[in-house]
Amino acid sequence: FIVDNAKFVSGCLACLAAMIQFETPHISVLTKMDLVKKNKRFMSRFYEPDARQLVSELDHGLNPAFSNLNQAIGGLVEDYGMVSFWPLNCLDSRSLELVLSHIDNALQWGEDQEPKEPTDEAAEDAE
Predict the structure, then answer these.
(1) Nearest residue to 19 via CA among 106, 109, 104
(2) How confident is residue 46, by pLDDT bands cut at 50, 70 and 90?
(3) Most exposed among 33, 48, 60, 107, judged by the fewest C-beta atoms under 10 Å?
């Protein structure tokens, strides 16, 4: 998916289409990051894709006749500015916690719950 620029742009467009059509909070996750052997700096460019860079990389590999189409697609991704990905490495607990915290934040989990007092927790443990 991230090895081929055309597939990555396609994934960005699918993500953007889901955001616009469903109008619900969601998180885009890059899974299987434990299998990636690239360095972190190389991978960080995929977390928040830069449309101009993607378009320039697409233009190098494709027929020049598609240059206008690539510019339009890049402009679409850049205009909305909503596409970003969170890396998920199933072997790294910090990565799991980060993705889960972003999911909780997107769903606003726990915002309407009352905070518990320490004495309440101790009383529950005693029972």
Answers:
(1) 106
(2) confident
(3) 60
**pLDDT per residue as tens digits for the range 63-92:** 778 888 888 888 888 888 778 888 888 888
Tell me the pairing of strands 86-87 and 29-30: parallel
First-last CA distance in the chain = 51
Which residues are bridge partners to 29 per DSSP?
86
Distance, in Å, from the CA atom of 59 to the CA atom of 78, rounded to the nearest integer, reads: 17
Report d(CA 67, CA 104) in Å as an integer: 40
In total, the chain counts a number of residues equal to 127
Q: In terms of pTM, does the model score above 0.90?
A: no
